[in-house]
């Protein structure tokens, strides 16, 4: 079914009066149990802002502790002063309701900043014993290293780990290139795993010192005390690649200790590499442990997950800059042609990652090509979209290309906790986190048909006109939501004029940015507008 607008003849003045009466009635936040509903019990309004005082931080990773606490990490960078090699790793600990855990650091916050460098936390593990491990990278003006930090249950550095609580992996080629700019590092640690014996496995992409053209995929193992495990691979390392660009962007860890790494071969083909528990190529997988799976539409794996049957669902870069692909592979790295269309589901998306939730639904989240943040669920069997929700991360300016969802974790109740960066006045970043329900279904399908709705003027002071293709006679439901995802205005039934327009009076609506949802049955289209 496509979204279609009505051609019923209704005088604009009468329709406007109806909308004023019907719409300008504040309603409670939407019913819980639907994907994308912001949980108002999390912090004060469902969205948690996490500044450390500098106003230039963002979140890269989230994990849930055994008691339900959230441990969150990322990076801090002075984007205004462009101090490339100044900044550290912020680590927050929050209770399940979003409040600061007072026993952790200073009011729930710990900051790790080594002298003469900049550090970035890329992955985090909340261990069963209460300790927290962070994996990331460190830059100085003339060097770069992989970095691991372990914290005690109170947020202090663990002196039994590495040197004073941290381990730096130095020496070519186990390095990342020099830091450039203030975006999250594309190289470094892509996944981090706590093994059953207390050791750690890290997977990612690296290059020789100062190397920007040739990259290597790596798997690295540390002992429980933070030393390189020399019994793994070659002196603790497995490296993949030589003259070609090879990347490891994500990994799955198997019960037998083996690791499946997904990434790109030569910057273009989807590439899988299976590594044994001992750090050698698993020759039983693919061709001598490697499976290169080129397609005409994809240019490498950026993240992937495995379902209960062992099949793989990968987010892949596309040959089109403004598009990503969700591709299903079998456990041997071959495309499953019956999934979606030819094994693929296309997205008009710039930034995107994929996860598997506890109900075995594929969860895709990221940033659409129009800069709208989103979360969506997909079937593992057909690739059918089950649910979709556009999302705003808090009381910021109009979302733009500086907004990202960078982190995801699922709690024990099936809720999704996400986090990332937002752009705020003063040209600085601010970390945020939010909890949304992953249960139920709201029917907010991301329509891909030809029907579109536009809004003008946008921004607007008091009135806005909606214009759509008038191809049928239907009544629609309209909901306006604020940046936290809360419904503030609604109309149960409305129709467009025969010119395909409707005028909404927004006089009583506070200034700010809003999402507008227009529904026909179980299908909804979405746009955003600003009232000033």
What oligomeric state is this?
single chain
**CATH architecture classification of the domain at 12-30 and 448-531:** Sandwich
Assign the CATH superfamily of the domain at 12-30 and 448-531: Macroglobulin (MG2) domain
Query: How are the strands ordered across the major sheet?
Result: 29-36-35-32-33
What does the secondary structure layout of this molecule look like, with pairings?
Layout: H1 12-23, E1 47-49, E2 57-64, E3 70-76, E4 89-94, E5 109-112, E6 118-126, E7 132-139, E8 144-151, E9 166-169, E10 188-194, E11 200-206, E12 216-222, E13 237-240, E14 246-253, E15 259-265, E16 269-275, E17 290-293, E18 298-306, E19 312-318, E20 324-329, E21 344-347, E22 349-356, E23 362-368, E24 373-378, E25 385-391, E26 404-410, E27 415-424, E28 428-437, E29 445-446, E30 453-456, E31 463-468, E32 476-481, E33 487-494, E34 501-505, E35 512-520, E36 523-531
Parallel strand pairs: 29-36
Antiparallel strand pairs: 1-28, 2-3, 3-4, 4-5, 6-7, 7-8, 8-9, 10-11, 11-12, 12-13, 14-15, 15-16, 16-17, 18-19, 19-20, 20-21, 22-23, 23-24, 24-25, 26-27, 27-28, 30-31, 31-34, 32-33, 32-35, 35-36
Polypeptide structure, described:
The protein is mostly beta strands. It has a domain at 12-30 and 448-531: Immunoglobulin-like. It is 2% helix and 45% strand. A five-stranded mixed beta sheet has the order 29-36-35-32-33. The protein has a four-stranded antiparallel beta sheet with strand order 1-28-27-26, with no helix packed on it. A four-stranded antiparallel beta sheet has the order 2-3-4-5, with no helix packed on it. The longest helix has 12 residues, at 12-23. It is globular, with a radius of gyration of 24 Å.
